User: Fold these one by one.
Assistant:
Number 1:
Amino acid sequence: KAGVTQTPRYLIKTRGQQVTLSCSPISGHRSVSWYQQTPGQGLQFLFEYFSETQRNKGNFPGRFSGRQFSNSRSEMNVSTLELGDSALYLCASSPVAGGNYEQYFGPGTRLTVT
Amino acid sequence: AQSVSQHNHHVILSEAASLELGCNYSYGGTVNLFWYVQYPGQHLQLLLKYFSGDPLVKGIKGFEAEFIKSKFSFNLRKPSVQWSDTAEYFCAVNPGTYKYIFGTGTRLKVLA
């Protein structure tokens, strides 16, 4: 079974621009979560989607948004990029939502904002 | 607010030494607990998980963790580390909601 895939793997943007990241979950998984990983901060939860609905959201500004499509693929968008948005953005999928399943992580998208 | 604390940010051990990484969480109800590992250049992957039952859980590669409810802790242990255990380790908690809370991670370096 193919794992979680994320595109693009690397991205360089300038301040003020916007960016869209994509995540394809493992086949059959309907829950997708997004995290921001930075050194010293660990993984910060952004949001989780299940059946095209956002079920929970972390403490990030409204510039961070996401959506999920009917095939469970998900995208996250960051508008008006700031230098502090430079990070590794991880996507994780699980069969269903809730905490009784492990999450399977993708390789991440490394975003650099200059 | 719910949080997960990993007190050891960097750990350096020699091969064959014993390992214990601390994890404490702040949540009074039932929780699901996880340890994930990120080897250099690889994806985060699950080491072990605890949902209920025996509080001593065994995971892959000889790792184990003990859930102590009274201490809100879920410490990771390995009796004898190997050079290949060099990685970053993350403790995570899910209180049955749509949100996983991760600790800040512990970087383990094992010297050959």
Number 2:
Amino acid sequence: EPEVTQTPSHQVTQMGQEVILRCVPISNHLYFYWYRQILGQKVEFLVSFYNNEISEKSEIFDDQFSVERPDGSNFTLKIRSTKLEDSAMYFCASTQSAPNEKLFFGSGTQLSVL
Amino acid sequence: GENVEQHPSTLSVQEGDSAVIKCTYSDSASNYFPWYKQELGKRPQLIIDIRSNVGEKKDQRIAVTLNKTAKHFSLHITETQPEDSAVYFCAASNYGNNRLAFGKGNQVVVIP
């Protein structure tokens, strides 16, 4: 079965540094997402991406965050200047059909900001 | 925005018994309700979903019920097995937006 892949699985960075989290969605999927989960809290929506542009973003997704689909396969999340509170598990997801429906999640990137 | 709450946070059941997890939602416009299962160290995986135009959906040992009036929906697992042990997340969304609002998750432990 096709899977969403994410790299790296773990990322440790110093506060103020830039990080790029990488994802390869399933190849025939059209909608792409980033979610995050701070330890012990809910899975939170960050951003959705469709037709090469952001379709929706949450209040968490401020100017420090950006997404890009630089080629036909990769989907990246960049955090320009990381803060301690950015430490979380970041999940990429994609879906072929309507937005939100039958999301396929990646295995996540655990980001630790020191 | 939508707020989804799950109860209980942890549920222990004897193998073979049934498990029920309940979620409530706040936005009456929500019309799509998926359930995801996350085993330890693995990715969340969709196990069942329901739209607001039906009240119940079943897939083998798993069923979901929806009460739109009360704004709650429940996951039912019958004849539980050790491999059902996982964290289960409910979520809600509507066609007007591109985000899922998740509950906090329930840890289900099936005791052999």
Number 3:
Amino acid sequence: GDSVTQMEGPVTLSEEAFLTINCTYTATGYPSLFWYVQYPGEGLQLLLKATKADDKGSNKGFEATYRKETTSFHLEKGSVQVSDSAVYFCALSGGETSGSRLTFGEGTQLTVNP
Amino acid sequence: DGGITQSPKYLFRKEGQNVTLSCEQNLNHDAMYWYRQDPGQGLRLIYYSQIVNDFQKGDIAEGYSVSREKKESFPLTVTSAQKNPTAFYLCASSMDWGDTDTQYFGPGTRLTVL
């Protein structure tokens, strides 16, 4: 079935450091890919998405490129802030197994220290 | 403001009791979802509804029930048959049942069984 694998956390960075959170997926068909962010005690918010190969999603300084050849959708930010501390989830939908349901990775906890 | 509301934010239940979690949306979305989140894990789909008066089991439906009598409401009942109900429950909605549609999440309900 469809699945999403994220790099193990937690990740701790200093403010202004470069961030990469790896995400790879397994799916047949042509899935859409998403990054969601969850701040403490809250629900999830969409951070960015890409719906076809080579698309780049971007928002609030975060970027991710849909790489079909490597089945990856890595999240990057050039300079993180303390306010970016949260849990980040990679997800897919539209695979032949999942259909329109979202399949989530395990989440990566990011802590940014001043 | 449009959005998804969940109530209550915190809920305590004694073993053997059924409890109903509320989810309301005023986004005029057709599709709604219930997820369960456990510490260190991604979200798992409990039930989903593509349209009013219709719903389908997700990956972990045992011990849960739902109804979708109105477009804006999708309550979840956690029954006494659910063996380990303590978790964070998230409701979501999307405009349509499409794999590129963004799911919007509520703030969640934390259920604790005493």
Number 4:
Amino acid sequence: DIQMTQSPSSVSASVGDRVTITCRASQGISSWLAWYQQKPGKAPKLLIYAASSLQSGVPSRFSGSGSGTDFTLTISSLQPEDFATYYCQQVNSFSYTFGQGTKLEIK
Amino acid sequence: EVQLVESGGGLVKPGGSLRLSCAASGFTFSSYSMNWVRQAPGKGLEWVSSISYSSTYIYYADSVKGRFTISRDSAKNSLYLQMNSLRAEDTAVYYCARDLASVAGYFDYWGQGTLVTVSS
């Protein structure tokens, strides 16, 4: 199975900050990567698919980049509603695997 | 409005069985591949199983292969997960999720989840 490793595991930031989360695949996955946001007690929400495509309805402050094994999710200017846990997911091959998550906390 | 509503979770003893259901509405269910994803308490997300729109292709995570069976009924707009030989490590919130149209593996709509607890 392809392993997905996110860093950092947690990050503290302030409203208005720019934040970057990274995700590394254990082998090349082209651009077959998604990013999800999850708030406590809620289902995950798809933010980015195909590494850099913004899902409909997601604010443009979210962006994704990368291909092969290294990927990033960037939030350009943090808003109060962005504090949550973020997961990457590879869909290059079954079984699909998720990263361990990055918890974004208020500083 | 797309809606996915899971049901069937509960407390079950190790070795027992449970059948989860996911009722879909607001879209043409028969045109989309569907999935189950689980999340153990306080842990991350784990993909469990996928079924193509026509049920032709079915995939399972190694952790559930041979014990869980995914199925769907387009007449009832419903997705199912039959879980047998349950173990403590199967304790989790189980979500059903829809594939993004024509792009397998990206989950654009999720249900609210149903909790399965495996304990004696």
